[in-house]
Amino acid sequence: YASGGWGDEHRIGDELRRYVEQGFRAVKMRIGAMDGSVEKSLARVRAARDAIGPDVELMVDAHGTLNVGAARSIVNLGGTFNATGIPQQGSMDTRAVWLGQDCGTVKPRA
User: Fold this and answer.
1) What angle do CA 51, 63, 33 make, to 5 degrees?
2) What's the CA gap between 103 and 24, in Å, rounded?
């Protein structure tokens, strides 16, 4: 998979689409504290999914920057975009949310 995905909601699609055009069938993007809010993270995930289409795996990684409540919101709302969560390295509570042990709506990716 290609890893990157730092662009804002207006640039993320172009960045990830370039990886797909290079032949990658999965891409990983950053979310979390860098966005400033769950809503901005989800807007970026939505823009990424729209740009790469439904057949490319989209992974999201918060790099341990979310608290349990924010992780739960991303998992619950992010499933709408068919995104795969990368378990955080943070607290066990937050990690459980990402692994689907808390709400069961995210596909974990080890």
Assistant:
1) 75
2) 30
What is d(CA 83, CA 85) in angstroms, rounded to the nearest whole number?
A: 6
DSSP assignment string, 78-95: HGGGTEEEPPPSS-HHHH
Q: Pick from 56, 60, 14: which is nearest to 35 by CA? A: 60
Mean pLDDT by 10 residues, the chain (110 residues): 91 96 93 89 92 91 78 71 62 51 44
Residue carrying structure tokens 């068919």:
82
Is residue 19 a contact partner of residue 2, using CB atoms and an 8 Å limit? yes
Q: Is the pTM of this model over 0.70?
A: yes
Contact 73, 38 (CB under 8 A): yes
